[in-house]
Amino acid sequence: MPIVEAKDVSAHYITNVYGIEREVNAVDNVSLSINKNEILGIAGESGCGKTTLLKVLFKMINPPLKILGGKVEYNLNNKKFDILTLSDEGFRHIRWRNASYIPQGSMNVLNPVRRIKSTFRDFVGTHCRMGKREIDEMALEHLNDLSLPPQVMDAYPHQLSGGMRQRVTIALATILKPDLIFADEPTTALDVIVQRVVIQLMRKIQSEEKSSLLIVTHDMAIQANLTDRIAIMYAGKIIEEGKTKEIFKNPIHYYTQFLVGSLPKIGDKSHRISIPGSPPPLNNPPPGCRFHERCPEAEEHCKQEIPPLIDVGDGHKVACFKCTANERVVV
Amino acid sequence: MAQEKLLRIDDLTKVFITGGGFYRSRVVAVNDASFSLKSGKPEIFTLAGESGSGKTTLARIILGLIEPTKGSVKYKNREVTQISKKEKRSWFMKEVQPIFQNPFETFSPLKKVDTYLYDTVANYNMAKIGQSVKEYVNEKLGVVGLSLEEVEGRFPNELSGGQLQRMSVARALLTNPSLIIADEPVSMVDASLRMSIVNLFKDLRDDLGVSVIYITHDLATSYYVSDMIAIMFRGIIVELGPVQKILDDPFHPYTQLLKKSIPEPDPEKRWTEETKLSLSSMEKKEFQREGCKFAGRCPQAMDICTSLEPEGFFVDERTVKCHLYNNSN
To answer: Which residue of B191, B244, B266 is in closest CB contact with A248?
Structure first.
């Protein structure tokens, strides 16, 4: 049974400034499930709704973001929680104990005027009944597991380097051993060497705790290196989903083909073609398939009808009329 | 001098001094850097390294924006620091043009993007008599795959990051430069548009004969696009040579570590062995270290490494600053 199941989620940013209403369809009819003990990656370019989807899955819905429909269910200890209708108080019990979140730019999220020690105390104290000393001991042990020196506890965030702050944030998110971890661009803005260490760390935590990890990043190389399954998003919709190896070896959607084909590799100087055009604006998305303006094979009905996400075998799902013309297994 | 160079950098050093009194500390941002770009044969030269390795400082010195502490930068055999203000405007700034990292910050959100193009033409007196400014601008926009219709009267927020970055390239091309210095031009651009910018640099080199200094931390794109590469570490160019030689078979232990840390976009080639990261709080100490700056992390460090700074040794078409390649011992 999947640990998270999202069905037909739509979330829009709705602003109303001086009577001018603007609506951005950041997430449009997305269905997604995360299985137990797997690493799922969400890939896509910036502004395609990756982060918004993650916000919906973690119930961080603040105006102007508004849910227009759909359902997100968590399966925790054989109990189902419909988190979008759950009260804030109810979700407080789940947050950090069962599900945690590593925010974007997480080297800059620590409170600059509090020592790391106090941050840990605030963090754990809110969710568990534990004394200061117990928390300190637990934090030290956890930091040690993540190969951070104990001196970190007494340091202020500015005394640590970017990579260390990143690891402290990961330590905070994982200290209560959650079943579910959401990570939003955890390695962007880090140097390659530090990036490698952070990725190894996340993989280690995941495999030790057998938890589920959802990782959002636009870096396809990280996706290839870390994830078990990938969902590719384009302009607010999931257009392809499947096992990582399948997506890289056998991409079906034209966008995915371009994306995988345009990646440069060391040791290969052959010419790479980039995708023509640029992504559509989300406040006024094109009708039909949202990729049709850039698609080399677009036909008349691509411009009018929205292609459904169709399973082409072994959990590999694609939303494209042309690619799935021969397969008629609607999920 | 046997051969005339487009750009020649010799023993360039830049020291930043911060604080005063007891808190005074020196950071050598660029340490004894030397390299050159061939004249006559345009090439793409990559400066690669982690953040804080001095790449941007080096670029700013070449652009004449900051003065070096020591050493010389010669552009077409003229010392850049010696060029008078007037001549800098009429000649040097036309010849050498920058492209910056974040296209959303390059353009002011309150100005229409096409005004940048007209201003550049006006400032450098570029349009020929009998040719209208708009025609000239349109011609340059055509080179980068845009047209004046697409951008005329638009504000930066109406264009995508890829389009804006093309605009910066078009703006740089207006003065017909021979050298473009691009500081992390693709790091803020989406994956699907990244290759279009990188391919654009290739076209500039092949069709227009413009040399490009491409500053990046992304070794995969630099392998794809460039001819020569310099790997910087803590202000020092540790390895310099043809890109295929260096990235296919790196010699310096730092380059080897760097290459190993790049994730490959291939799920069959995942990392299996663990790397150990030495604690990164020592960054500042590394800058001040005696001898080789990498010795603290180097798996092959010897006694000499901690005391004597290695010179450049020339091995297999490249210069490596590492004692391992000293032929005399």
So the answer is: B266
Set of chain A residues whose Cβ sits within 8 Å of the Cβ of B259: 266
Calculated CA dihedral for residues B306, B307, B308, B313, nearest 10 degrees:
-30
Q: Residue B226's pLDDT is what?
A: 92
| Min Cα–Cα distance to chain A from B273, Å | 10
pLDDT computed for residue A39 by the predictor? 94
B310 phi and psi angles, rounded to 5 deg: -70, 145
Sheet architecture: strand order including A39-43: A99-102, A180-184, A212-216, A39-43, A229-234, A237-243, A317-318, A310-311
Are B32 and B12 in contact by the 8 Å Cβ rule? The answer is: yes
Under 8 Å CB pairs connecting chains A and B tally to: 141
Which among B186, B176, B182 is positioned nearest to B91, based on CA atoms?
Answer: B176
- Looking at the domain assignment, is residue A110 inside a domain? no
Assign A105 to helix, strand or coil: coil
Structural domains in chain A (count): 1
Q: What CATH number should be reported for the domain holding residue A89?
A: 3.40.50.300
Total H helices, total E strands in chain B: 13, 12
A266 with B271: Cβ contact below 8 A: no
Same-domain status, B207 and B77: yes
Q: Collapsing DSSP states into helix, strand and coil, what is residue B47?
A: strand
ipTM (interface pTM): 0.76
B310-321 pLDDT, tens digit per residue, is 888 888 889 999
User: Which residue would you say has higher pLDDT here, B214 or A19?
Assistant: B214
Q: Which residue has the tokens 């850049």?
A: B80
DSSP state of A268: B
- Closest CA–CA distance from residue B83 to any residue of chain A (Å): 37
Smallest Cβ distance to B267: which of A199, A224, A279? A224
Sign for the CA dihedral angle at B123, B125, B130, B135 comes to negative
Residue B102: how many other CB atoms lie within 10 Å: 16
Residues B182 and B263 in one domain: yes
In the predicted structure, residue B185 carries a pLDDT above the cut 90: no
The strands making up B78-79's β-sheet, listed across from edge to edge, are B25-38, B5-18, B70-75, B78-79
Residue after which a domain boundary falls, among B127, B149, B175: B175
Which residue blocks in chain B are alpha helix, DSSP H? 55-62, 85-87, 93-95, 103-106, 113-124, 133-143, 148-151, 161-173, 191-203, 219-225, 243-248, 253-261, 283-288
With a cut of 70, say whether residue A331 has pLDDT above it: no
Report how far residue A250's alpha carbon sits from residue A279's, in angstroms, rounded to the nearest whole number. Answer: 23
Strands A212-216 and A20-34: unpaired
Contact B239, B246 (CB under 8 A): yes
Start-to-end C-alpha separation, chain A:
17
Structure tokens at B191: 């994956």
Please state, for a pLDDT cut of 70, what percent of chain B lies above it: 93
B6 inside domain: yes
What is the mean pLDDT of the segment spanning A106-126? Answer: 88
Using 50, 70 and 90 to split pLDDT, how confident is the model at B274?
A: low
Q: Model confidence over A131-173: pLDDT tens digits?
A: 899 999 999 998 888 878 888 899 898 888 777 888 899 899 9
Percentage of residues in chain A having pLDDT higher than 90: 32
Q: Contacts of residue A225 in chain B, CB cutoff 8 Å? A: 263-264, 267, 270-271
Q: Domain limits at B122? A: 106-175
Does A193 contact B270 at a Cβ distance shorter than 8 Å?
Answer: no
Residue B193's CATH number = 3.40.50.300
